[in-house]
Design goal:
This protein has about 325 residues and is an alpha+beta fold. The chain has eleven helices and 14 strands. The radius of gyration is 19 Å and the shape is globular.
């Protein structure tokens, strides 16, 4: 896919429709947007919105993504070429992310190879209450299919991905009802992490994936910083650092509250706010929803999920399925 790339870090630029500037969400670099580039970006948004709307041509639209995908190559230490048909490439913490049709590939430079090992280890530590829950939830946790050392000494980790799953950041700014179901899925996953005694320390937009057709959220990234509850942190994503309580940051201690607070910041960003505090200016946001994003997380993942259920009903009434999105304008305006 021919997307606008940041000249500094290679990230995909975000264009403000009312501005002549594009901003890189990863390194903050600003670039001038010319008419031809703007038309290209808007064409991509139209194609993606058609897929989300599940219109009659949705299948053709999705296939069109991959026709325009770019070819990338990685080289294993034994010289074998790994060819990647890549729709999306971005930076996330200490790695580069390649989004292919049926896989997500993470590469780590040699000095960060310990994070590749931690990723592989921590995803294998997820525990499920029973077999039924495992069958229901395991697909939303990374399933490593292969990993290897690269020619330059770095590491590669590849995980499975369904063809209809995309980086959550691609959805842009959401209506509050759509952001609400994202929160519901994340609360569920936070309960699974808590049951497993794991703190992700990287619950951010760049580490989350979405299947628009089914409203499912996939926790694919961030596991390189994951640790055990009350254990020592190996690192923390930039957005999660903004959310962690000072006592845990200073003691470098993993605590479930970091993920629950990070969930709130991720939700605020989906609503178009750079900070949680900025949601105070969203006049159409139901008051219980606003208070949930502004107030501290509950004392456990289970209690937080229960509180969110109360907020959801207080904000919108009885739960129901909301199609995503209704129109291109609603999602991307």
């Amino acid at each position: 896919m021919a997307l606008l790339k940041c000249k500094m870090c290679g990230g995909t630029l975000t264009i403000d429709k009312d501005s002549s500037l594009a901003v890189c969400p990863y390194c903050g670099t600003k670039s001038t947007v010319y008419d031809q580039d703007r038309k290209l970006f808007e064409q991509f948004q139209t194609m993606f919105a058609a897929l989300l709307n599940k219109d009659a041509d949705a299948g053709k639209t999705e296939e069109g993504f991959w026709v325009e995908a770019t070819d990338e190559e990685l080289v294993r230490e034994d010289g074998e070429i790994i060819a990647i048909r890549c729709l999306w490439r971005m930076k996330a913490d200490f790695c580069t992310v390649y989004v292919a049709k049926k896989n997500v590939i993470y590469t780590f430079d040699k000095q960060y190879e310990a994070y590749a090992d931690r990723y592989i280890k921590m995803v294998s530590e997820v525990k499920y209450p029973n077999r039924e829950m495992e069958q229901e939830l395991k697909n939303y946790i990374p399933q490593v299919v292969t990993h290897c050392r690269l020619e330059d000494g770095g590491r590669m980790v590849a995980i499975e991905k369904k063809p209809g799953v995309y980086p959550l950041r691609l959805l842009g700014i959401l209506l509050d009802r759509h952001a609400a179901w994202v929160i519901s899925r994340l609360e569920n996953l936070c309960c699974l992490l808590s049951y497993s005694g794991i703190v992700l320390n990287g619950l951010t937009l760049d580490n989350l994936f979405v299947e628009p057709a089914t409203h499912q959220i996939y926790l694919y990234g961030g596991w390189w910083f994951a640790g055990y509850q009350n254990g020592t942190m190996s690192g923390i994503s930039a957005d999660a650092r903004k959310c962690i309580y000072r006592k845990y940051l200073e003691s470098k201690r993993c605590h479930f509250s970091t993920d629950l607070e990070s969930l709130r910041l991720a939700a605020a960003k989906l609503l178009g706010c750079e900070t949680r505090e900025a949601v105070e200016d969203l006049l159409t946001l139901p008051e219980p929803f606003r208070e949930f994003l502004l107030e501290p997380a509950a004392g456990s993942a289970g209690s937080d999920f229960a509180e969110w259920d109360r907020v959801l009903e207080a904000s919108y009434g009885e739960r129901k399925f909301i199609p995503l999105p209704v129109t291109d304008e609603e999602i991307y305006s």
